Amino acid sequence: MTDIIGGVLILAGAVFGALSGVGQVRFSDLFTRMHIATKPSTLGLLLVGCGAMLRIDGRGAVPLLALTIVLQFVTAPVSAHLVGRAAHRHGDWERDEAVVDELAEVDQL
């Protein structure tokens, strides 16, 4: 039973990873690309890692997979924030679509 659940989790994670790759090609805006690069791929890695934990019999692989998942969850949001902040400071975003520019107030301080 764990093999079936692990296989389903790995397949679902692969689908999320593929959707993330397709989104990078299809979306044109910087912030939507930034979103699609972090959210689905992080969830996909979580699903693949959990599925691999269920499928692999060795004890040494589980801590490495858990560490990989934790590091992905720590680094992906930070890198997306830094890319978004740099794009905002450089002016590579649509000012007409933004309702409130809270970062402009912070940058002026």
Quickly describe the structure.
The chain is mainly α and 109 residues long. Helices cover 81% and strands 0% of the residues.
**Strand runs, count:** 0
What Rg is obtained from the alpha carbons, in whole angstroms?
18 Å
Helix content: over 70%
Strand proportion, as a percent range, falls in under 5%
Instruction: State the end-to-end CA separation.
Output: 58 Å
Number of H- or I-type helical stretches = 4
How would you describe what is shown here?
The protein is mainly α and 109 residues long. It contains four helices and no strands. It has helices at residues 2-26, 30-55, 61-90, 102-108. Helix 1 runs antiparallel to helix 2. The protein is elongated, with a radius of gyration of 18 Å. 12% of the residues are buried. The mean pLDDT is 83.
Write the layout of secondary structure elements.
Layout: H1 2-26, H2 30-55, H3 61-90, H4 102-108
Descriptors:
single chain; 109 residues; mainly alpha
